[in-house]
Design goal:
mainly beta; globular; 209 residues
């Protein structure tokens, strides 16, 4: 007698995936798995950008395949082509602290995209994938990116929070940001990020293509 196949839910219906927001281009959710906890088997069908907000020791169990156990470092960026390589899997937190990451499904390309990568102080190009470019953002206290011509729409995902001033054509706003916060901007836009806090600010910027 063989075991019955497990029930499978959509990534959107997995209880440990907390919905954050959705627009025409992105579906953003927050993954929080306590120590020794396990997700349901769930399916991914959209290309997805993942950013690890905290380090974790995890077991990834794809349905019908061998389990993969390993460490994910804080700040790890992953871009998974789930449209062409959909997956059904279950994730177990094998560590002694909460596993947390932000997932952002890449639903559609914006009407305006940038041909070349953005260059600005504090930004480092991390990866170029067909549907998203990613940058690491590291700003020391009082440091600024300078005025950036962001010829794209994108998502800023905060890894280490702080007080950030975001200045653009419509003025400046100062935000108190926490790890895991995610801010979408529609482009093209000119903006400047300045760290007004007392500690380094770290984030990932995803550029939709």
């Amino acid at each position: 007698m063989t075991d019955a196949p497990p029930d499978v839910v959509s990534v959107h219906d997995e209880p440990r995936h907390r919905f954050r927001f959705r627009n025409d281009h992105a579906y953003v959710y927050d993954v929080l798995i306590p120590p020794a906890d396990v997700t349901l088997y769930h399916s991914h069908n959209e290309d997805t950008l993942y950013v690890a907000i905290a380090g974790a020791h995890v077991c990834n169990q794809p349905l019908g395949q061998d389990a993969q156990i390993g460490d994910v470092a804080k700040g790890t960026i992953m871009v998974m082509p789930h449209r062409t390589k959909p997956i059904v899997h279950q994730v177990t937190n094998k560590g002694d602290a909460d596993m947390r990451l932000i997932g952002a499904e890449i639903l559609a390309s914006p009407p305006v995209v940038a041909e070349t990568a953005l260059s600005a102080p504090g930004l480092t190009l991390a990866s170029e994938k067909p549907r998203v470019r990613t940058y690491t953002v590291v700003l020391e206290p009082d440091a600024s990116t300078g005025d950036m011509a962001c010829a794209f729409s994108g998502l800023l995902i905060v890894i280490s929070g702080g007080v950030i001033e975001i200045a653009g054509a419509d003025g400046a706003r100062t935000l108190s940001l926490s790890p895991g916060d995610a801010i979408w901007h529609d482009g093209p836009v000119r903006q400047r990020l300045t760290n007004r806090g007392a500690a380094p600010f770290e984030a990932v910027l995803g550029e939709w293509r």
